[in-house]
Amino acid sequence: MSFTPFELEAWQSRYEHSVAHNLADSGCHPVGLGELLAHDPDAIGRLLAVDLNYPPVGGTDALRALIADWHTAAADNVLVTVGAAEANALTVATLVGPGDHVVVMEPGYRQVRGCALNAGADVDAFPLAPDHQWRPDLDALDRLVRPGTKLIAVTNPNNPVGTILTEPEIDAIIAAADRVGAWILADEVYRGTELLTDRITPTFWGRYDKTVCVGSLSKAFGLPGLRLGWLVAPPALVDATWRRHEYATISAGTLSMHLAETALAPATRDRLLTRNRTLVRDGCARLQNWVDDHKGLLSIIPPHATALAFVQYHLPRPSLEVADALRVHGSVLVGAGTQFGVEHHLRITHGLEAGYLDAALSSISRVLTGLA
Ligand SMILES: Cc1ncc(COP(=O)(O)O)c(C=O)c1O
């Protein structure tokens, strides 16, 4: 059977440690261990006392309860995984088989698409429409969803364009799924990275029975190195994904679960969200100014969330060629639009320290001007 590689992640793993500036990771500047533990005088003692045994395979009770609270679910709806990546992969492996039909949102993080193709499914994409400010084309979704559609996958807020779905849009997606009894996979890793409001993006959880929500500590919480994620699902599906989790990884790490309990405790959770929102709001403003300085060459539809900017360049060259030129001649790594399903764009991460971001953007300017 043919295999569809995950082009974006392959690009990152190949090059992200060999450039001066990495603007291809999709979170904000990561939180240090000292910073995570700083506000609790007993935290280091508790960390040093951790017994490095296998943890509870589905997550500690305390952690499952904290994750449940983030999605207004119950602890038995939660399976703790190795990042959102494992949660997405387990969900597709559990729900999708050969010949099934899957609908994904594009532009998008193409993990669910690739996993579904590799499971032998037919995959269609419904667009976030650039001529409608990256709003979802719900008529297209409705046309695509058919009897036999097993799964509709959305990312909310969206990677790479930062669209936050409105309540009527969420209702329409659920109605499309309900019409044919499809599952919804709502990847919610970017909840908490809102740029224009302090209101956390509403979760899909609790609206429709056949829903799986996926989250992680990698984006809004700034802790990607913990490799700690989760899925939230009806208990029977938690059970079925858990059986696959035992094959794939057995469990996330003991230290990661311990630190995740710290990160999601209410006081720390709010401190991390505030820290990271400050970074993404500042980064987004810098990025927007930089785009404005390159009128005619660059343009952007302003995102509503995430640490990401999906910038259109007005040059007659494919995005992988442009991204490769930036890597080779500017030592900057960015995502190429084609890796998200849309050409002539670059995905540029901006939620980084100001000096680092500014230096990287200057390098991009230099190389792009040379290509123009
Ligand atoms: C939409 C989306 N889902 C899942 C992931 C994987 O996240 P994690 O680091 O939690 O595995 C990413 C990472 O970029 C992402 O953008």
Structural commentary:
This protein is an alpha/beta fold. The protein has two domains: 7-32 and 269-371, Alpha-Beta Complex (Aspartate Aminotransferase, domain 1), CATH 3.90.1150.10; 51-265, 3-Layer(aba) Sandwich (Aspartate Aminotransferase, domain 2), CATH 3.40.640. Helices cover 41% and strands 16% of the residues. It has 13 helices and 14 strands. The protein has helices at residues 7-15, 33-37, 43-48, 61-70, 83-95, 111-118, 138-144, 167-180, 235-248, 254-264, 266-292, 319-330, 354-371, and strands at residues 21-22, 78-81, 101-106, 122-129, 135-136, 149-155, 183-187, 211-216, 229-232, 298-299, 308-313, 332-333, 335-336, 345-349. The protein has an eight-stranded mixed sheet, sandwiched between helices. Helix 5 crosses helix 9, helix 11 (266-292) packs parallel to helix 13 (354-371) and helix 12 crosses helix 13. The mean pLDDT is 98. Pyridoxal-5'-phosphate binds at residues 26, 83-85, 88, 109, 155, 159, 187, 189, 216, 218, 224, 229. The site of pyridoxal-5'-phosphate has 14 residues, from helix 5.
